[in-house]
Design a protein that fits this description.
The complex is a heterodimer of chains A (334) and B (291). Chain A is built from 13 helices and 13 strands. Chain B is built from seven helices and 15 strands. Chain B folds into three domains: 92 residues, Beta Barrel (Elongation Factor Tu (Ef-tu), domain 3); 134 residues, Nucleotide-binding domain of ferredoxin-NADP reductase (FNR) module (Rossmann fold, 3-Layer(aba) Sandwich); 43 residues, Ribbon (Dihydroorotate dehydrogenase B (pyrk subunit), domain 3). In chain B, a hairpin with a 2-residue loop joins strand 13 and strand 14. Classes of the chains: A alpha+beta (334), B alpha/beta (291). FE2/S2 (inorganic) cluster (FES) binds next to loops of chain B. Chain B: Keywords: 2Fe-2S, Electron transport, FAD, Flavoprotein, Iron, Iron-sulfur, Metal-binding, Transport.
């Protein structure tokens, strides 16, 4: 990794220089909720946020997305590359994007996702956990790749890790804004990271988790929570790794139609429904359990399908807590 | 040529044939000969039919790759999209993308006996295997056990009757079970008393023995059928690795993106569209929710 320093007084100028790349999106506070919005100036952002409601997946897998346009009986491709910057992405969300990459860039690659991914500049930022975060348990509290630049707060500026050639080029073009890293900066960086590591309150015990959960398939705990669950699908929408989509064709006029994708949720009854009314996950219990299994699936090359961002807990109207459910299911085995 | 995997290619309907009151056989050919040339598939694979502006749906290819220049889809009218295509006529064009899925491992099974067990519409993908196996002549012996509701519901009735009469010359034995009695069925039963009977598909196993070390079973039918057929096969000690079945799930993308066809638990997740639709019974034992 290459490390450079961005002194606090150059921060704004650095931020402004990013606009040369494309539109810049950053974390903005509206009411009690943070979300990634287009920003023009540093002061519009709240860089000390915990989590946005929708993760950065919204830029790559959009909630609603017209993928094809029908003209004269032929589909026209809607793949576009428009460079943009996502400023202030947390480590867990960078890991979330890496999980989406595995799915969407795997051959045959999804051309819409791929084009957007290639045109996005990802600037990471360090954060402090709150009561919902459990990324440390999953090893997603620190990103080693998947970003172009990553900013770590120092008392007098930012320690910048350069994670890609593109990140390197951006730093190069703004050479005058950066300094060499000093011994003192490194000591501060270490102190911050150590303090951060100690401040996690929630922990997921993942030892043997995949097997334990599978063995507990018939645990009454699934039912207990499925009974409380409202099946609203919020947890799917806000999850940085949930990615199911539904497809729908719509006529705009007598000659033109569009094919649209939109987020789908495995909590919906229609998710596993096939022709003739047969449903492969007919009950709420089936669907509730399915989501937990999907999130806790362990892929030897990519890890779990959950990055511990805590969104599903914070935005669940029924107050269902991910780690608690898993702990209880595992506990019910004895 | 489009690089976009979601864009379908034009295919012209060469022929539409009524198979039963509910099912029609569509014979198609790609409009662009180059696309047709590249379109190669194995039995058990499926395509996504694109009724542009109305939607898409997955359908198994029911013809054999040994017969080139066209491909066939047997489509049951069950809802919106399938009703739409049932109204289409010869000469009209639909979109096709694929082929998708893994298909049956035909090469691996060469030299062995094949037992095809079909229930209802499950006959469609297995017909591709049947003709592939007969045309290629690379298999020891082929059995077709076919369970159908009534005489009117027998898919590819001409072919089935033809094989009942002349199958042995092609190394192929056909057995048929029907549930609803009718004069036609009774007539068939009289003609082939040892091979046609009233009952369900598992009744066809009665009295049958086979060399479990040199046999593969290939099953396709409604979800309820698998359990019973697998019991028959397991009773005869056919290894779970030798039992293949093709499964159905809701599908949207067909290429492992949309998440609809995901099954399994924390230790094993499968995408039916990409890892299947053909699975072994061993896969089902190690992946919950597969059957
Ligand atoms: C791998 C595979 C192979 C198949 N092979 C055949 C075949 O050879 N012959 C045949 O007749 N049928 C086959 N089917 C089933 C066929 O896809 C459905 O009958 C068809 O999608 C129903 O569409 P509909 O709009 O007419 O039905 P509706 O009941 O109106 O469908 C409602 C909605 O659910 C969707 N839907 C319903 N069932 C399915 C399904 N199984 N997969 C995906 N989406 C679904 C439809 O697209 C539609 O949007 C196969 C399914 C799969 C998964
Ligand atoms: S399951 Fe919950 S905690 Fe895990 S990544 Fe999804 S939203 Fe975040
Ligand atoms: S957010 Fe909570 S209530 Fe809503 S579907 Fe998810 S678990 Fe159920
Ligand atoms: S059909 Fe979309 S993932 Fe399988």
């Amino acid at each position: 990794m290459r490390y450079i320093k961005l002194p606090a007084e150059n921060f704004e100028e650095f931020f402004n220089s990013l606009k040369a790349w494309g539109k810049v999106y950053g974390p903005v506070k509206r009411g009690n909720i943070h979300s990634f919005q287009e920003v023009q100036r540093v002061k519009e952002m709240d860089l000390y946020y915990n989590r946005t409601m929708l993760p950065p997946k919204k830029f790559f897998v959009r909630p609603r997305d017209v993928i094809l346009r029908l003209k004269n009986g032929k589909w026209e491709n809607g793949v576009k590359n428009e460079p943009f910057v996502i400023f202030g992405v947390h480590s867990c969300d960078i890991h979330g994007l890496k999980i989406l990459d595995k799915v969407y860039l795997d051959e045959p690659a999804d051309p819409y996702y791929k084009a957007r991914r290639e045109s996005a500049l990802i600037i990471g930022i360090s954060c402090t956990p709150d009561e919902y975060c459990f990324c440390k348990s999953l090893g997603t509290d620190f990103a080693m790749d998947g970003f172009d630049l990553f900013l770590h707060e120092l008392p007098d500026g930012w320690l910048v890790r350069v994670g890609s050639v593109r990140g390197h080029e951006i730093a190069w073009e703004n050479e005058e804004l950066f300094e060499e890293v000093t011994e003192e900066d490194l000591a501060n960086f270490r102190a911050f990271e150590e303090k951060r590591a100690k401040s996690f309150k929630r922990k997921l015990s993942k030892e043997g988790l995949a097997d334990m959960l599978d063995l507990a398939y018939n645990s009454p705990v699934w039912k207990k929570y499925a009974d409380i669950c409202l099946a609203c699908g919020n947890c799917n929408m806000v999850c940085p790794t949930c990615r199911c989509y539904e497809v729908c064709d719509k006529w705009l006029n007598a000659y033109e139609a569009v094919r649209e994708r939109r987020y789908d949720s495995c909590f919906m009854e229609s998710h596993g429904l096939v022709a003739g009314g047969h449903n492969f996950r007919p009950t709420r219990l089936d669907r509730f359990r399915h989501r937990y299994y999907c999130k806790s699936y362990f892929d030897p090359s990519a890890g779990f399908n959950c990055v511990g961002c805590g969104r599903c807990d914070e935005f669940c109207p029924a107050g269902i807590e991910h780690v608690k459910v898993l702990d209880e299911v595992r506990g019910s085995l004895q | 040529m489009s690089e976009n995997p979601y864009v379908s290619y034009d295919a012209r309907i060469l022929e539409v044939k009524d198979l039963t009151p509910r099912e029609k056989l569509f014979t198609l050919r790609f409009v662009d000969p180059e696309v047709g040339e590249r379109f190669d598939f194995r039995p058990g694979q499926f395509v996504i039919v694109d009724l542009r502006g109305f939607g898409e749906f997955p359908i198994s290819i029911c013809s054999s790759p040994t017969r080139r220049g066209y491909f066939q889809l047997c489509i049951r009218k069950v809802g919106r999209m399938t009703k739409f295509i049932h109204r289409m006529k010869e000469g009209e064009v639909v979109g096709i993308r694929g082929p998708y899925g893994n298909g049956f491992p035909m090469e691996k099974m060469e030299g062995s006996n094949l037992i095809l067990v079909a229930g209802g519409l499950g006959m469609a993908p297995l017909r591709s295997v049947l003709w592939y196996a007969i045309d290629s002549g690379k298999y020891e012996h082929i059995w077709l056990f076919y369970g159908t509701k009534a005489y009117e519901d027998i898919l590819f009735r001409d072919e089935v009757v033809h094989l009942l009469k002349h199958g042995e010359a092609m190394n192929c034995s056909v057995k048929l079970a029907y549930e609803v009695e009718s004069p036609s069925c009774i007539y068939l039963e009289k003609g082939f008393s040892d091979r046609v009977c009233k009952g369900v598909v598992t009744d066809l196993f009665r009295g049958e023995e086979f060399d479990v070390n040199n046999t593969y079973a290939l099953i396709c039918g409604p979800p309820v059928m698998y359990k019973f057929v697998i019991r028959e096969l397991s009773d005869r000690k056919l290894s779970p690795g030798r039992i293949y079945m093709t499964l159905e799930r809701r599908m949207r993308c067909g290429i492992g993106k949309c998440g609809h066809c995901i099954v399994g638990t924390s230790t094993s997740i499968k995408y039916v569209c990409r890892d299947g639709p053909v699975f072994t019974y061993w896969d089902a034992l190690s992946t919950r929710g597969l059957i």
